[in-house]
Amino acid sequence: MTSESSNKTSNVCPSRRLVTGIDSDGHSYAQIDGPTRAFIDYGRAASSEIWIDMGSEPSSQDDLVSEQQRLIPPEGGSVCRVFTMRPEGRIELKSSEAKKFRTDGIMENDEINGPRWHTTATIDYGFILKGQIELLLDDGSHFLSAGDVVVQRATRHAWRNPGPDDCEIAFVLIDRASRMANEK
Question: pTM for this structure?
Fold first, then answer.
């Protein structure tokens, strides 16, 4: 492994987020500007939670991100996060940090070392920002690179980074379960 490759899989930092607001005069401004406080680096991957939307009026929402993250968004809401997935087998899992990312029983197994198959009742948009990643579906493997976008529509799937470099993906997960229940 070269030192250049080592650098590509080591120093992951919390994402900077700029959250806008409206002041008392009705003017837009940067209400929050800095690294997210919701950053988890659990070795094999790192997650920067950017924003949690509760499905209410956008300008009146509080900042709900915290050190404890959940895979699925709140009912009727959405979540935006940036995930860095490191190459398989390169970095050991930090179990204590991994526990901060709750999956609420959605994962098909508790094995952390292989692909984590799961199905969520969400529509997810995944924007590959850098690197390459393998999306595993029931029909096989699909390789994605920087610039590609995944529209994941409540299907069974898993992610795997065969390496050699980190892959950074921005995800927006939107809850659809409550909307579908209301339409029935």
Answer: 0.78
The answer as to whether 93 is a domain residue is yes
* Residues forming beta bridges with residue 133, ordered by sequence position: 144
4 occurs within a structural domain: no
At 70-80, the pLDDT tens digits run: 777 888 999 99
Residue 146 covered by a domain: yes
Chain-centre distance of CA 133, in angstroms?
14
- Structural domain of residue 106, as residue ranges? 38-183
Greatest Cα pair distance, the chain, in angstroms, is 57
* Cα dist from 181 to 57, 73, 117, 184, whole Å: 21, 16, 25, 6
- pLDDT tens readout for residues 34-58: 999 889 887 888 889 899 888 877 7
How far is Cα of residue 107 from the mean position of the Cα atoms in its chain? 15
